[in-house]
Every structure is written in C-alpha cells, then in structure tokens.
C-alpha cells in the first residue's frame, strides 16, 4: 500500500481468463517500505521502530499538504523556528514521506525569519529578531523546580506557569512532578482563572509528553 506519486510514471497491468479480464494502474515504489505500511481505520501509516525497540506510527503525508505541514511545524510560535535537525526529528516523529528530509531542508533554507536571525549573529550591526506573543494568554510556559526541603504538608517541588506576553507568573507547591499533577495545576491555577491559552510550552519533560486518559 502506498500513495501515488504523480511525479513518477504509471503503468497498466492487465490479465484475463476465460470468464473476465482486469486491469490495475500501478507505480514502482521503494519495495523496502512496503512491509512497514499499514491501514488503520482507512488511514495509511508507516511503522517506525525506535532505538529502544518501541514502535511509532507515522502518518503518511499526502504530497499536496506536505509543505503546509512542514511550515506549520517549523514556523509557528509554538515551535520557534527550530534548526534542521530538531525540525526533522519533530516532524518525522509523527509524519512520513519519501525524501522528507530534503524537502524540510529546502523549506528551512528558504525561511525568511531563519535567514534574518542567521544574519543577526554574523553582523553585530543588525537588529536582533525574536518571537513574541502579541496578546495575553496566547502562549504560556510551565516547568517544575526542585526538589527542595520537604514541607510539613509533604511538598518539595514548585510548578511555575508564566504568560509570555504579560510576564505574569504563578507558582504552585506540589508533592511530585507527575503528569496528573502538572495537568491539574495548569487547569486549576491558570485555566479556571485566566482562561484556556492558545498554546502551552514546556521543556518536553516526560511529564509533559505523556498522553492523559479520560
């Protein structure tokens, strides 16, 4: 199973018997990937094996939207114009397409913001360019600090939540740094009082990456 590549030629395979005849429009693809492709609820995925032996399902990205997805993963304020390697790692952890890395490198090379920032470091007279949210609650960041000396209530960590626009910061004493604790604090001390932010930024610690179940 594979998506058609309209930049490559198609060929028609036919067969017939005494009762009927048939034809199939085919393309030559990289045979090495056939065994890694599978349909999950009518969606095509490629299975990638990590170094630790675990499997990751990559969505096989249609060519028509690949540039849009790459630009979104690279240029939005939540991704911060990462470099080539980090952008490729982030995209390939979720998506797959043949020769993906070449396309990613091309888009980053043509990124106007990246080129301006690169020039900033090569010329001291250039103006420093940085990303900044334009309104309150557009982007917040959260992280844990500690461990500190345990209190009488058993708390030994702080979770910090900061709004990148207003610079308002909130602190919450916690007993641990588990996923449930991090999520509950974001909801209780931020979302319930300040509203749901457009984006949440973290340092990609394990407690911020685990998917919570209902």
Whole-number mean pLDDT: 77
The strand line-up of the biggest sheet is 3-4-5-6
Classified by CATH, the class of the largest domain is Alpha Beta
What radius of gyration results from the CA coordinates? 24 Å
The CATH superfamily label of the largest domain reads: Ribonuclease H-like superfamily/Ribonuclease H
The CATH architecture of the largest domain is 2-Layer Sandwich
Helix count? 6
Strand content: 25-35%
- The shape is elongated
CATH topology of the largest domain: Nucleotidyltransferase, domain 5
What is the helical fraction, as a range of percent?
Answer: 25-40%
Largest sheet data: 4 strands, mixed
How many individual domains?
Answer: 3
Keywords: Multifunctional enzyme
Domain Integrase catalytic: 129-214
GO molecular function: catalytic activity; nucleic acid binding
Organism: Brachionus calyciflorus
Explain what you see.
One of its GO terms (biological process) is DNA integration. Pfam families: Integrase_H2C2, RT_RNaseH_2. GO terms for molecular function: catalytic activity; nucleic acid binding. InterPro entries: Integrase_cat-core (IPR001584), Integrase_H2C2 (IPR041588), Retrovirus_Pol_polyprotein (IPR050951), RNaseH-like_sf (IPR012337), RNaseH_sf (IPR036397), RT_RNaseH_2 (IPR041577). This is Integrase catalytic domain-containing protein. With 214 residues, the protein is of the alpha+beta class. The chain has 3 domains: 8-60, no CATH class; 61-117; 139-208, Ribonuclease H-like superfamily/Ribonuclease H (Nucleotidyltransferase, domain 5). The protein has 6 helices and 10 strands. The chain has helices at residues 63-75, 84-92, 100-109, 112-122, 179-194, 206-209; strands spanning 11-16, 21-26, 37-40, 43-49, 55-60, 95-96, 139-145, 157-163, 169-174, 199-201. The strands form 3 sheets. It has a 4-stranded mixed β-sheet with strand order 3-4-5-6, with no helix packed on it. The chain has a 4-stranded mixed β-sheet with strand order 9-8-7-10, with helices on one face. Helix 1 crosses helix 3 (100-109) and helix 2 crosses helix 3. The longest helix has 16 residues, at 179-194. The protein is elongated, with a radius of gyration of 24 Å. The two termini are 34 Å apart. The model has no long low-confidence stretch (mean pLDDT 77).
